[in-house]
Each structure stands twice: as structure tokens, then as C-alpha cells.
Amino acid sequence: MERDCSGEVRGKFPLPAILRRFMTAIIALTVASWGISYFCYRVLHLHYPYSYPMVPRQFRQLDFTMYAGCFPQLPHFPETCANSTAYPAPALMVYQFFYLFPHPLLVFMATGVSMFVAAAVLLARALVRRGVARRSAYLFTGAALICSYPILFAMDQGNIEVYLWLLLALGVWAYMRGGWMLAATLFGVAASMKFYPAVYLGLLLAKKRYKAFFFGILVVVLATILSLWILGPTIHLAYLGVTHRLHNFGSTYVSTTQPGGIGFDHSLFSLVKATQPGRSYRMYASLYLPFAAVVGIVVYFWRIWRLPRINQVLALTIAAVVLPPFSIEYTLIHLYIPWALLTLYAVEIAGSSGSLQRVRGLGFCFVCFAFLMTPESYFIVDGIRYSGQLKALVLVALFVAALRYPFVETGETQRA
Q1: pTM for the full model?
Q2: Sign of CA dihedral 189, 192, 196, 200
Q3: Rounded to an integer, what distance in angstroms lies between the CA atom of residue 271 and that of residue 278?
């Protein structure tokens, strides 16, 4: 083992066996998905959904390009956005920023790709500092990046989830380092852009950082008001326009479903849609929403807030991506936050031996991650893809593991 001039360990250990198996699994599952799709298309001459793990090609980057006619006309919230503003006001500000450039989609894509590459490099460097051989570390994070179906899906759609991931990843990093107010600010901004990231404020509540917790809520309110003011022509009119369009979005994607889209939805509510296809789900949604909220709150105060912080991040992340009544593949990019924490945890526990026999549940978590981070697009019955519903069940299993198996970091304290 070598140390640099600062005393940090420099990588000489092989990658722990559990991480090597994970890398092998994601490569095999990725090759299987694309290989099966290629075989269906070229040999069997089958078409969508058999021929392609992604959404149909004509919908590429649609989540971004649909705003092309909106933002040059601000601050007067234009009628041209009537059918395309399915986000709260702060989220629209992200799109507004990119549409300031002459080639907004190019800047959006280049920024997103650079961000994920940088994250992979930073994780590899963190592995090297903990003793993993440099080549093994970069091979591992490179394979995880290349085989990442959620990242590919998010970039393919041009979805804003990419930048929510950045906010939440930085927020968890600040939280792990004790930067409570910074974490609260980042979580608050993310929660103002979409509703479900508000669950991450539960990390601060569990640490009894009440000032930071309520500051995060204040950030949500202030970011929303400021964004509505920018949208214009008045805060009230912008609010009415945004909420009306959010209601229309819910009526389209929550209360109904399309056979071609259900395979990309891994929410618990999608299980209801899968068992009763072709119906209106408005009544079911009205029952599901309060049920999910109550269950989430009960489980949080019953179990989550007393867990080690890695388990808290894992459990809250799963709750964020599985409890909403509509949750598409790109939200799975948030799983890379607890996955990175567990990866570093595995390396620290294994050390030079590479053995993790005394850590119960860790291997099961990585099996679940491998399934969730790859397409599995070949689960098709009668022309309808059900990979999303299988992922919903895997998410539930991973959530149970997060509640059951504590991953206590070396030297972790439970100070308030």
C-alpha cells in the first residue's frame, strides 16, 4: 500500500469481488437487451417495442425541444406553451436558461454528458484514494457510465431530471460532510422544480437540523415565487397557467395510460395500471395519493429516521422514484447517489482482502442495482412491455433491504 505526501492511500488493491460481479452483471444485461432487440429487428423483423430499448426514435429529445417556442417571449407567459409546460415554474427556468444560447439543445446535451463523465471520474478518484488500483477504479466507473440505461434514457429524452440529479447529488455530498444549510438549499431548489425531491429534507429532519429543514422549505417557496414572477405577466396569472397545465399533465399521464408507455413507468401505481389496462384511473389515483403519502410518513418515523445515513439516503431515494403515481425511467438516475455511497462503503469495508462476508444485504443491493440500471426491455407480453412494473417490484425489494440491513460507516456517529 502506498501513500501520497498528504498521507492518503494510493490504489494498489483489486476491486472488491462484489463490485466486479456488479460490473459483469451490468455489462451482460446491457448486451443481452441490445442484442435481443437487434435480433428481433434484423432477424425476426419485429418492430417496436421489440426492436428498441428506448422510446420510438421520433420522440428523441422531445422533453427539451417542445419548449422551443416558449421562452424567447418571456416575461409574458405565452400561449404557445399551453400544451408543453408540464413542470412547476422553477423547472421552466432551467429550460429558459438553455434557450438563451443559439444552439440550446447542443448546450444542454454537452453539459449533461460532461456532468456525468465528471461524476464518473470523481468516483474513480475516490476509489483510488481508498486503495483501489487506478486501472480497476476507472474501468469500473467507466463501465457503470457506459451501461447506464437511466442516464442514456434521460439524455435521449432531453429531460430536466439530469439537473435535478446534479442538485440532489451535490446536496447529499454537502449533507455527508455536515454542510446542513447548503444541503437544505440544494434540496429546496430541487423540490421547487419537481415535488418529490422534498423527501430529501427528511435527511436533515433525522439529524434534528430543524433550522436547515425549515430553511429548505423556505427555499422552495422563494424559488417558486421568483420563477412565477419571471414567467409573468403577473405571479398570479403565471401560477394559474402553470397549475392548469400540471393538472392537464396529471389527467393525461396519471389518470390514463398508453400501452406503449407503461413499460417505462416504474411507479407503484403502474402496477394498478398493468393489472387493469385500458381504464380511467382517476378514482384509483385519488385513493393512491393519500395512501402513498401516509405510508411514506409512517415508514419514515417508524424506521427510516433511525437508520444509518447511507440507509436513509437509499430509502428516501427509492421512495422518491417509486411512490409518485407516474415515474419514468430517467428518474432512476437518482439511484446512482446511494449506489455511489454503497460502492465507497464496500471498498472501505473490504480493504485489501476484498471480502465482505460480514456485511449482510450488501450483495442483494448490488443485484437490485444491476437490474435497475440496465434496460430489461425484453419483458414483453402480447406486444406490451412490462419492464417498468418488474423494476417497481425490484425497487420495493431494495427498499425493504434498506430498512432491514444497516450499513454503518467506519467511525460514523449519530450526533444530533
Answers
A1: 0.91
A2: positive
A3: 13
